[in-house]
């Protein structure tokens, strides 16, 4: 009977002995903002063993029942935190507990009594909108939300909002505030044409809880225009327009100058081209379009008539330019005079003829303004009664 009684005693007390060997979780902390709950804890460890954890919750009013209905939030998780939001717990009070499990052996349950209405932090407004009206600001906010996207005002009736505003140039050190339970406020009598920044904070009266501030929203106030500001804006715009037009004109001028110097550079012309360009009508006049020449008649005397003198009628060629070759005319006249003085003997006839041929041969008109035009004189090669004509060719 003794061994049997010993076995029964071991079967009854052995689970308690093993449970006492598994250390329970420590430092339970419930982080709550509005209705967002997250439970965290620590575990001291057990000779390098890995533990799993189980978290259970129940509403506080159910603890008075004989068999409260526990809800399991996390079961055999290796993390040391658990999200309680899926359980939709009661806001006024809840009760939670955690235990550790090692190799199938459980530790003792560690409870935590928590009242969100007193212990949970309140969150800031979800959104802030600011608009300018005359010389004031209109501020509208969206109330803090629960995890079911409902207003926290339904759970916290004493919820208030602190509206803080300050000039952007001075900073938040000179901020002023306004506390109101409304989600829309209007702050008047502010300075015109000044930028203000606004930030909002949630708070509760009982218990006294405050949230963090929202991100500042900055906007400028309106006001009546003064003539000084109107003139300043007008002349400023006029000055900028003038600078813009001046810059465009200067840019076009510089571009034109670069283009002209690159593709049409200035070159000094020779002096004779400058004289030609100064009076270009010389070549284009109709009266110089053709070269007009008079006929030159040369009558050769017989040898018997030489002593009495030789008469020649010489007409000089003239063109539209009015310029004739003086050297050629002088040479021809001197030849005729020498003929009159030396034609008294037959021996001089042949010399006279050669002299006339030399004097009245092919003559090229030089120093004339008409280029590529010549006068050709053909003289009689001998003596005779028939006159010879001289042709003028272009």
How is the topology of this model organized?
Elements: H1 2-21, E1 26-33, E2 36-42, E3 52-59, E4 71-77, E5 81-83, E6 94-102, E7 105-106, E8 110-114, H2 116-119, E9 127-133, E10 136-142, E11 159-167, E12 176-180, E13 184-187, E14 195-204, E15 209-210, E16 217-220, H3 227-263, H4 271-278, H5 281-284, E17 297-300, H6 326-342, H7 347-359, E18 384-389
Antiparallel strand pairs: 1-2, 2-5, 3-4, 3-6, 6-7, 6-8, 9-10, 10-13, 11-12, 11-14, 14-15, 14-16, 17-18
Question: Any descriptors?
Answer:
394 residues, alpha+beta, Immunoglobulin-like, 5-stranded antiparallel sheet, 18 strands, 26% helix, elongated, disordered C terminus
Task: Write a structural description.
The chain has 394 residues and is α+β, with helices and mostly antiparallel strands. The protein folds into 3 domains: 18-119, Immunoglobulin-like; 127-220, Immunoglobulins (Immunoglobulin-like); 291-389, no CATH class. It is built from 7 helices and 18 strands. The strands form 5 sheets. Strands 3, 4, 6, 7 and 8 form a 5-stranded antiparallel β-sheet that branches. Strands 11, 12, 14, 15 and 16 form a 5-stranded antiparallel β-sheet that branches. A 3-stranded antiparallel β-sheet has the order 1-2-5, with no helix packed on it. Helix 6 (326-342) packs antiparallel against helix 7. Residues 5-10, 282-291, 308-349 and 355-394 have low confidence and may be disordered.
């Amino acid at each position: 009977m003794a061994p049997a009684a010993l076995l029964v005693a071991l079967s009854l007390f052995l689970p308690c002995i093993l449970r006492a060997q598994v250390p329970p979780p420590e430092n339970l902390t419930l982080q709550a903002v509005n209705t967002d709950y997250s439970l965290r804890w620590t575990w001291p460890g057990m000779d390098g063993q890995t533990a799993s954890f189980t978290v259970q919750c129940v509403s506080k009013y159910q603890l008075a029942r004989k068999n409260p209905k526990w809800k399991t939030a996390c079961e055999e998780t290796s993390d040391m935190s658990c999200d309680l939001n899926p359980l939709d717990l009661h806001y006024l009070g809840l009760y939670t507990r955690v235990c550790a499990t090692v190799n199938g052996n459980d530790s003792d349950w560690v409870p935590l009594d928590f009242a969100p209405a007193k212990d949970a932090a309140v969150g800031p407004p979800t959104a802030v909108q600011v608009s300018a009206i005359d010389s004031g600001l209109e501020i509208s906010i969206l109330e803090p939300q629960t995890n079911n996207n409902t207003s926290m005002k339904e759970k916290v009736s004493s919820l208030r909002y602190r509206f803080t505003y300050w000039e952007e140039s001075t900073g938040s050190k000179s901020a002023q505030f306004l506390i109101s339970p409304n989600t829309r406020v209007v702050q008047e009598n502010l300075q015109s044409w000044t930028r203000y920044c606004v930030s909002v904070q949630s708070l509760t009266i009982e218990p006294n809880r405050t949230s963090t501030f929202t991100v500042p929203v900055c906007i400028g106030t309106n006001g009546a225009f003064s003539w000084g500001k109107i003139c300043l804006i007008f002349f400023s715009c006029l000055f900028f327009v003038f600078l813009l037009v001046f810059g465009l004109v200067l840019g076009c001028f510089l571009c034109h100058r670069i283009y002209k110097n690159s593709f049409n550079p200035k070159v000094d012309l020779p002096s004779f081209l400058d004289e030609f360009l100064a009076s270009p009508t010389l070549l284009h006049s109709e009266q110089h379009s053709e070269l007009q020449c008079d006929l030159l008649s040369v009558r050769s005397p017989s040898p018997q008539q030489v002593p009495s003198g030789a008469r020649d009628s010489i007409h000089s060629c003239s063109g539209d330019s009015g310029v004739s070759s003086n050297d050629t005319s002088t040479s021809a006249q001197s030849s005729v005079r020498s003929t009159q003085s030396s034609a008294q003997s037959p021996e001089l006839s042949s010399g006279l003829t050669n002299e006339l041929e030399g004097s009245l041969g092919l003559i090229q008109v030089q120093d004339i303004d008409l280029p590529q035009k010549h006068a050709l004189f053909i003289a009689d090669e001998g003596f005779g009664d028939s006159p010879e004509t001289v042709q003028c060719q272009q």
